Amino acid sequence: MKTSGKGYGSQYWLRIAVNSAPNVLNREIRQSITLNAGKPIEWISPLAPAYAEYQDHRFVEQLRIKLTKVPLTGFFPMSGLP
């Protein structure tokens, strides 16, 4: 898990949007993937004050998903690296 209050470029602006104007970001996401307005979007990361960015198994845990058929390493490389 990466944490930091600092950031630059798109990483910085995503933190700003998620923490300051999630409704604006949610609207754009809903329009781009045609998600029903009744379906909630819950932001798990990057939330203030730590701006945690989860990777690998911690990421899956935060999504509350259980990978019962194939382990994460069976289809996605550790740390997202090829």
Listing every helix as H and every strand as E from the N terminus to the C terminus, the arrangement reads HHH
Shape: globular
Return residue spans where pLDDT drops below 50 for at least 5 consecutive residues: none
Number of domains: 1
Class inferred from helices and paired strands: mainly alpha
Question: In total, how many beta strands?
Answer: 0
Give the % helix.
Answer: 25-40%
Question: What's the topology here?
Answer:
Elements: H1 9-20, H2 22-33, H3 56-62
Helix pairs in contact: 1-2
Describe this structure in words.
Helices cover 38% and strands 0% of the residues. The protein has three helices and no strands. The mean pLDDT is 86.
Would you summarize the structure shown here?
By secondary structure, the chain is an all-alpha fold. It has helices at 9-20, 22-33, 56-62.
